[in-house]
Amino acid sequence: MSGLAAQRATWLAGALVEERLGGSATGDALAVLEHTVHLGYNSPMHRHTDDDVTFVVIDGHVELTIDGELHVAGAGSAFWLARRSVHGFVVASPRARFLTLHSPAGSDRFVTEAGWPALIVDGEREPHQPDTVVQRSPDRLAKIAAKYGIEIVGPPPTLRA
């Protein structure tokens, strides 16, 4: 089981990523991450070589490109990405929240290593990434990603729809 006290919150390149269920709680069978992002936030095109990913939009709109096909995803949309599927996304609404479920776990450790811990003040997560966080270099991010079976294969997508 995982409770609020066991969860981690991490800033990763401008996204607030909250670990809802980490590999340490599931024997590395599964990790569940909640992402809170803003308009225009995007991920580089990448693939997971070691895990399958389920992507579930909680609120907002995301343009998700999977193996070259564009999907405009709103609240309630869900996509299963088999390992090695090339994918990336860009946020198409002022704010979006989505879950990524990784089976097996490992991406949760990538987020922790590549990101910056988010502060909790009076039980509330900080509302935005602090100015003191230095943007990580793409080369550094790619090296850390490779340790966890994530290959960066292209630049991030831009808004299309």
TrEMBL record:
InterPro entries: Cupin_2, QDO-like, RmlC-like_jellyroll, RmlC_Cupin_sf. Gene3D superfamilies: Jelly Rolls (2.60.120.10). Pfam families: Cupin_2. It comes from the Bacteria. Residues 37-94 form the Cupin type-2 domain. PANTHER family: PUTATIVE (AFU_ORTHOLOGUE AFUA_8G07350)-RELATED. This is Cupin.
